[in-house]
Amino acid sequence: MPNGLVAIHKLSASIAAGLFAWLVMGGSQAGAFQLVTSEEAALPARSVPLLELRGSPTRRPIVVVISPAPGAGLVHSPLELKLEFRAFGGSKIDPDSVVVTYLKDPAIDITQRITPFISTGGITITQADVPPGKHEFWVQLRDKNGRLGGGEVSFQVTR
Predict the structure, then answer these.
(1) Are residues 66 and 86 in the same domain?
(2) Are the C-beta atoms of residues 142 and 136 closer than 8 Å to each other?
């Protein structure tokens, strides 16, 4: 390939990669990922679901909120959303089992939206754009042994 075509090909690949990253990040300004829209935030709140835990006497997987820190008070958007998943008894979290629900009426399943940020270790979104207000989520997950667990995530955003 002549040098000019190689340069154009590299530039096209770079633009495509940048466009893909922009789309994954939600297409919002300054690289922030739109975790919740203003329309979703305006819906009425819903209570945390009751997770009925029966059966296994072994420890179930849990969700630990790292950031925004529990009890941090008002936080600014964009914020870092970092959740850690913990499994016990030598098991690992099944990332395909993770379901994240925005607790509004009606409930909003945001799992598909945040799939690129979910791993066996947790969820990390370094620049999550969230409108002002109180936001509550329920994260449900299973470990590789099929044990069901979950946890609530809540924070309040100011601009």
Answers:
(1) yes
(2) no
Does position 21 have pLDDT exceeding 50, yes or no? Answer: no
**Structurally, how many domains does the chain consist of?**
2
Closest CA to 49 of 123, 155, 128, 148: 148
**Does residue 23 sit in the same domain as residue 52?**
no
**98: nearest Cα among 68, 125, 69, 122:** 122
Q: Can you give the residue range of the structural domain that contains 10?
A: 1-30
Helix (H) or strand (E) holding 40: helix 38-41
- The answer to whether residue 19 scores a pLDDT higher than 50 is no
11 and 43 in a single domain? The answer is no
Pairing assessment for the beta strands 148-158 and 133-142 based on DSSP bridges = antiparallel
d(CA 115, CA 51): 22
Span 111-125, average pLDDT: 97
Tokens of 138: 């329920």
Contact 149, 142 (CB under 8 A): yes
Are residues 64 and 125 part of one domain?
yes
